[in-house]
Amino acid sequence: xxxxxxxxxxxxxxxxxxxxxxxxxxxxxxxxxxxxxxxxxxxxxxxxxxxxxxxxxxxxxxxxxxxxxxxxxxxxxxxxxxxxxxxxxxxxxxxxxxxxxxxxxxxxxxxxxxxxxxxxxxxxxxxxxxxxxxxxxxxxxxxxxxxxxxxxxxxxxxxxxxxxxxxxxxxxxxxxxxxxxxxxxxxxxx
Length: 190
What we know:
alpha+beta; 3-stranded antiparallel β-sheet; 16% helix
């Protein structure tokens, strides 16, 4: 029997995305975004509240990067989520992390995170119910250590963080348990 829990954001897993953009002085700001998702083969949507420092920077610079946080960098990824760039001027510098300019878009790449998407701003959604940023992914870069022999990102090697909204926990990607577009093929024959 299922128990009523009321209204809770009951989607699991949620990604742990590190969204970075420059301000008007080329100062790096990074924020932790769990409410984001691929919305087409070359597009990503991030649900970021209007007025957040990164939101302001993306709107001004028209570009951003999105990195996948991994277990090795969980402490800094969490810090990027709890510290506001509007309140802490040296937010990025406190971490000791390193940023380089993307060669594809006007945005910083945080070197410590193993996978990064370089994005151009396509659209800002601002309605009564949604504040979102839609970006076009123009390139993806990945550390060789997280790639398979076929140069594909390997989730087992990546150890990407997943956010649990139920109990506010972080988990990592685990074992492969099936093959997509194959596990349900048997039911097609009925």
